[in-house]
């Protein structure tokens, strides 16, 4: 065999060896990939087999790789859906061992965030909530050594939100304090480079103070949050801030500011695709009635698509009856839709709207009359006599009507124009008598003008002067009488 032939044979052998090695490697990857996609097909029909298939993928890899990472993710989601929370958390701990070498930092961070979002939305029991806390704890432990501040902030924000949802306010305050420190400069001011995170922290704090009715702290944080200009927040975050701001303004009876905030909150929730937009739209309609506005809240481009939404139909009918001053229509809608009052915030403020409606109705009813029974007014409004008496009392004190209530007869007596004229005539007569009195006794015998000094203004001084003058007159009469008798003698 020639040297050339030997060379060719050696080259062919080397080529064949390298080709077979690549083929084996590709074949292994194909098998893993096929196993992964076969498991995905089983997810809907046989979740248990799908979980087993996904968990079998990591064992097929010689080193931790992307397919094992993907298989674990799918298995964790299925286990969590089926309520196998402990198993899901165990496999999540295994998943976190892949993030340091098997996948890129950006891919791992995105996957972990998506996983935490998934388990957060899937919470439907106390046990699930406890499992989520373990997910957060495992995440923080895993990334503590990697100095991944962004993921640390995001995970702690999710944990703080979980604590707020559980109403564990003490633990939430500590967590929020740690988050604030991480987003501040050494001098304690907010770091502009972390403005987005700062705004999310403010949103959680504002939500907490809104729930605990701490209006003073809420107002201070609300104003600080609106001053943050270096952030590009998620619309949902601004929706939370504006919603809590609207509730704050409602507690202060600042209806116009409340309506403005609720509208901004609705707009942000709508942009974020959040279902909370429906609830906030109800608050917007409530504020519209409280500010006694005649403007249709569905005239704007943002709210118009929701005008016929069945979820807010009851509130829409209330607004329509309110703006038409239809008290009976308003009461019927309220009685027919008691579910409106399931929301504590609406239940707390709807009484003020109802009172306004009844007050306007009372003014209309009593306008043509001068005397009427309270029971008759109550019958017209279809409410209790006690409620009518309360409204009448408010109207009299507020100066909106002029009249009085006869408690004994249970009647309302209105002042007529004749009563007003008679009262004014009596006042004028009283004033004229005072003027006449001053003129008569201004320079009279033994008298001085009563307006000359404080002492002379005393009624007792006037009475004393009158008594002395009367005594002198009697003395003069006796003297004249004595002289007459003397002459007769």
TrEMBL record:
Residues 251-419 form the PCI domain. InterPro entries: 26S_Proteasome/COP9_Components (IPR050871), PCI_dom (IPR000717), WH_DNA-bd_sf (IPR036390). It is found in: Cytoplasm; Nucleus. Its main location: cytoplasm. It comes from the Eukaryota. PROSITE patterns: PCI. GO terms for cellular component: COP9 signalosome; cytoplasm. Residues 1-30 are annotated as: Disordered. Keywords: Cytoplasm, Nucleus, Signalosome. Component of the COP9 signalosome (CSN) complex. Belongs to the CSN2 family. This is COP9 signalosome complex subunit 2. It comes from Purpureocillium lilacinum (Paecilomyces lilacinus).
């Amino acid at each position: 065999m020639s040297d050339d032939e030997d060379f060719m044979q050696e080259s062919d052998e080397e080529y064949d060896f390298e080709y077979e090695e690549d083929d084996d490697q590709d074949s292994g990857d194909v098998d893993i990939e096929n196993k992964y996609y076969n498991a995905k097909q089983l997810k809907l029909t046989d979740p248990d087999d799908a979980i087993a298939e996904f968990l079998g993928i990591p064992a097929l890899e010689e080193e931790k790789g992307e397919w094992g990472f993907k298989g674990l993710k799918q298995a964790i989601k299925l286990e969590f859906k089926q309520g196998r929370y402990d198993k899901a958390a165990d496999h999540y701990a295994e998943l976190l061992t892949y993030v340091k070498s098997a996948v890129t930092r950006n891919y791992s961070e995105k996957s972990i965030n998506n996983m935490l979002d998934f388990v957060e939305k899937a919470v439907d029991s106390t046990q699930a909530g406890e499992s989520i806390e373990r997910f957060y704890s495992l995440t923080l432990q895993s990334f503590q050594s990697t100095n991944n501040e962004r993921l640390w902030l995001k995970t702690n924000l999710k944990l703080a939100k979980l604590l707020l949802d559980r109403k564990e306010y003490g633990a939430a305050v500590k967590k929020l304090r740690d988050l604030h420190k991480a987003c501040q400069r050494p001098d304690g001011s907010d770091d502009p480079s972390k403005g987005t995170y700062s705004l999310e922290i403010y949103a959680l704090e504002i939500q907490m103070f809104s729930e605990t009715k701490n209006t003073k702290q809420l107002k201070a944080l609300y104003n600080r949050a609106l001053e943050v200009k270096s952030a590009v927040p998620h619309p949902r975050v601004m929706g939370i801030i504006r919603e809590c701001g609207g509730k704050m303004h409602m507690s202060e009876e600042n209806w116009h500011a409340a309506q403005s905030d609720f509208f901004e909150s609705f707009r942000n929730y709508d942009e974020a695709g959040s279902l909370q937009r429906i609830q906030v739209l109800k608050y917007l309609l409530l504020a519209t009635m409280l500010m006694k506005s005649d403007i249709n809240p569905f005239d704007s481009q943002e709210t118009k698509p929701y005008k016929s939404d069945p979820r807010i139909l009851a509130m829409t009918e209330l607004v329509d009856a309110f703006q038409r001053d239809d008290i009976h229509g308003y009461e019927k809608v309220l009685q027919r839709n008691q579910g409106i009052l399931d929301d504590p915030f609406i239940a707390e403020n709807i009484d003020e709207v109802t009172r306004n409606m009844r007050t306007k109705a009372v003014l209309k009813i009593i306008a043509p009359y001068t005397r009427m029974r309270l029971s008759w007014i109550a019958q017209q409004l279809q409410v209790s006599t006690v409620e009518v008496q309360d409204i009448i009392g408010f109207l009299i004190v507020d100066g909106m009507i002029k009249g009085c209530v006869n408690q004994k007869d249970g009647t309302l007596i209105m002042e007529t124009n004749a009563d007003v004229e008679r009262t004014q005539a009596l006042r004028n007569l009283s004033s004229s008598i005072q003027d006449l009195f001053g003129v008569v006794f201004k320079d009279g015998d033994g008298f001085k003008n009563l307006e000359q000094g404080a002492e002379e203004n005393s009624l007792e001084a006037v009475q004393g002067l009158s008594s002395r003058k009367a005594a002198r007159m009697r003395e003069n009469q006796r003297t004249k009488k004595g002289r007459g008798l003397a002459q007769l003698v």
